[in-house]
Specification:
The structure holds 2 protein chains of 2 kinds. Chain A is of the alpha+beta class. Helices cover 53% and strands 17% of the residues of chain A. In chain A, strands 2-3-7-4-6-5 form a 6-stranded mixed barrel. A two-stranded antiparallel ribbon of chain A has the order 10-11. In chain A, β10 (366-370) and β11 (373-376) form a beta hairpin. In chain B, the strands form 2 sheets. Chain B has a 6-stranded mixed β-sheet with strand order 6-7-8-3-9-10. In chain B, strands 2-1-4-5 form a 4-stranded antiparallel β-sheet, covered by helices on one side. In chain B, β9 (215-220) and β10 (223-225) form a beta hairpin. In chain B, α4 packs across α5 and α5 (149-161) packs parallel to α6. The chains are: A alpha+beta, B alpha/beta.
């Protein structure tokens, strides 16, 4: 405690250098915090849960998965064939069809903002099965349920995220026509019935699956031939099971069923499905984790080492004086290390805290569209991480200059002074 | 009159290496300083007086021979042991004061006390006493940059005596001061010797400063000599 005055006065010795070092640390800690937040979110998504698992049923050999609509009923129940087989309850299953369209009919006029990808599904499953939406509480849950009810009642309804609504330059209650990109010849006239809660689904959209089915029926009536996507319209089926044992049995029931031979299906957990999807980003994620993060941390340590080295070099005579007064070599080492720690710790903490508050509450998340995820939020753990990174790099960066301070030779310093 | 020896330098050699070359600075030098003595060491540049002072103050160790201060054989102590020993036994006065510029006069004087097991109140008491002794009670909150050279050296002396050391060593304490300030600093050192019975070893080039000491020893080529061969010049 009694050395604190000395430490803080030394830090204030060159305020400009201290501030610049602190700001450099803050910037880099901010970047590390952001990257870590994205990586830890993806890690959480790809780590297996032990209870309340979601199984994903997809076509085995093809990406994107495209299964016939005739698979829907059997897959949604978990393909039970005998009395001893498990049956998945209706509330625990969900089908997914992906519909991509543009508000512009003429392909030449299409732009990224005019294109909308929507999940076609049973509306009630939005609040029962979708990640995070099934955990809403209080007024947010009630408000979203009201939106879901509107979609249930209106087959031509559309639910969108706030950011997507802004990109479409629309508002709730507005109407739009989507000319399909992946269902040739299909166009959907939609009415925006409400919004997803802010967060993960800000750029997403959902429509009623019955409307897509009826649009394909209409196509058949008008053209006299089945729509080419009719037998490939089911993209995914989600099944919720209570534990790993149930998961294994349901997976075995589905994969051994002769009903799903052409095309064959496979069963994965949500996490392994996401992990498989993220394979496409493997190099990017690997680079972020093992190149970018370490590089930033090394740069941070070098910045601190440089600033502390200059400070130590400037103070060699003072350090020698302290030695003369009786300061032991290790006390000088600690003095320099604690100066660096004070800068790193305060810059790391303030940067991580500011990042947490600014990103989560100021900007409403950081936009980093990867896989199914459009926005990321900074977990509170990042404040601890940022502080540790700031302090840790300061510690690492101060080792060499602190050792140099420890090794100051009094007789050499004063020989030069004289 | 001076009493029993408090510093004994016994047949000390000190040499440095520059590449393959060996530079002998002290060549079997022996010296005794009694309790409450005020010794001035004089000699030409390169005669080894600062090296001798550093050995007596425990800032360096001899290549051969022994240095004993009080009952401690400091020539055989490790660097860490020497640091602890210096805190309690040595007060060092520098030519260029070497105060810490970011600390006030009070905080500069308090520095050596931080290393001792003293309460804040005890430290405050000792710092105030030391600054009072050097006549700077009214400059406690001033930083070195706000003090004159003479005042800075007084703070340096207060820092040297605040731990009540066995021995005060001074390396050209008046070398950077004008004649008036130098005279005041020498008065102060003499007073420390007479009133507090401090043992003082001072290196100086200035014959007027040396005259204020109880005795003067001359060094030449690493050995004590009776009389200087030539007049000394400032290094």
């Amino acid at each position: 405690m009694k050395y604190l005055v000395l430490i803080f006065k030394n830090i204030r010795r060159n305020p400009l250098r201290t501030v610049l070092t602190g700001m450099g640390t803050m910037m880099l800690v901010c970047v590390v915090t952001l990257i870590w937040s994205v990586l830890s979110f993806l890690d959480r998504q790809t780590s297996e849960k032990s209870q309340n698992l979601k199984l994903i049923v997809t076509e085995r050999w093809q990406l994107p998965s495209q299964m016939p609509l005739s698979y829907t009923d059997a897959l949604s129940k978990g393909a039970p064939r005998g009395p001893s087989d498990l049956t998945v309850a209706d509330k625990d299953s969900m089908t997914w069809q992906f519909f991509g369209g543009s508000t512009e009919e003429d392909p030449r006029n299409r732009s990224p903002d005019s294109i909308l990808f929507a999940f076609a599904l049973e509306p009630s499953k939005l609040s029962m099965m979708m990640d995070e939406l099934d955990e809403l509480a209080g007024s947010t849950a009630a408000e979203f349920q009201a939106v879901v009810d509107k979609l249930s009642a209106n087959r031509q309804g559309l639910i969108v995220g706030k950011s997507r609504l802004e990109l479409l330059n629309q508002k709730v209650g507005g109407r739009l026509t989507l000319f399909s990109l992946n269902y040739p010849g299909i166009k959907l006239d939609l009415e925006i019935v409400g919004l997803f809660p802010p967060g993960r689904y800000d750029l997403s959209a959902a429509i009623h699956r019955d409307y897509l089915s009826s649009a394909m029926d209409q196509y058949e009536r008008e053209t006299g031939r089945r729509h080419p996507m009719m037998d490939r319209t089911l993209n995914l089926v989600w099944l919720r099971v209570k534990d790993r044992q149930e998961m294994s049995q349901i997976a075995q029931q589905i994969e051994s069923s002769p009903q799903f031979r052409n095309p064959q299906v496979k069963v994965e957990t949500a996490s392994s499905g996401i992990a498989a999807f993220l394979e496409a980003y493997r190099t990017l994620i690997w680079g972020m984790r093992w190149l970018l993060m370490p590089a930033i941390i090394i740069v941070l340590a070098v910045i601190i080492a440089n600033a502390i080295s200059i400070s130590v070099r400037e103070r060699r005579t003072e350090l020698a004086v302290l030695k003369v007064l009786g300061f032991r070599p290790n006390q000088l080492l600690c003095l320099v290390v604690f100066e660096a720690l004070a800068i790193g710790l305060s810059a790391g903490l303030s940067s991580a805290l500011a990042t947490y508050l600014l990103i989560n509450f100021g900007f409403g998340g950081v936009t980093f569209p990867i896989a199914f995820f459009s926005k990321f939020f900074i977990p509170w753990e990042s404040v601890v991480l940022g502080t540790i990174v700031g302090a840790g790099t300061a510690l690492a960066g101060s080792v060499v200059p602190a050792w140099s301070a420890r090794s100051v030779k009094v007789s050499e310093v004063f020989a030069k002074v004289a | 009159m001076p009493q029993a020896s408090i510093v004994r330098v016994v047949n000390v050699h000190k040499y440095f290496r520059r590449g393959s070359e060996r530079i002998d600075v002290l060549n079997g030098l022996s010296l005794e300083v009694a309790q409450a003595d005020f010794l001035a060491l004089m000699g030409p540049s390169g005669s080894g007086k600062t090296t001798l002072l550093n050995l007596i103050a425990g800032l360096d160790r001899p290549s051969e021979g022994q240095v004993i201060v009080g009952t401690d054989v400091i020539s055989s102590m490790s660097e860490t042991q020497l640091a602890t020993w210096r805190t309690r036994n040595i007060g060092f006065i520098f030519q260029f004061y070497h105060l810490i510029p970011v600390l006030t006069a009070y905080e500069n004087v308090e520095l050596p006390l931080l290393l001792l097991p003293l309460s804040a109140a005890q430290r405050r008491q000792q710092v105030q006493t030391a600054l009072q002794l050097v006549g700077l009670s009214d400059r406690m909150s001033h930083r070195p940059g706000q003090l004159s050279g003479g005042q800075q050296q007084r703070v340096g002396i207060a820092r040297a005596i605040v731990t009540d050391p066995t021995l005060i060593v001074a390396d050209e304490p008046t070398g950077d001061l004008d004649a008036k300030s130098a005279g005041e600093i020498l008065d102060l050192l003499v007073e420390l010797g007479t009133t507090l019975r401090k043992t003082i070893v001072m290196v100086t080039h200035d014959p007027r400063a040396a005259q204020r000491a109880h005795r003067v020893q001359h060094l030449d080529k690493g050995l004590l000599v009776d009389k200087p061969a030539t007049a000394y010049e400032h290094a």
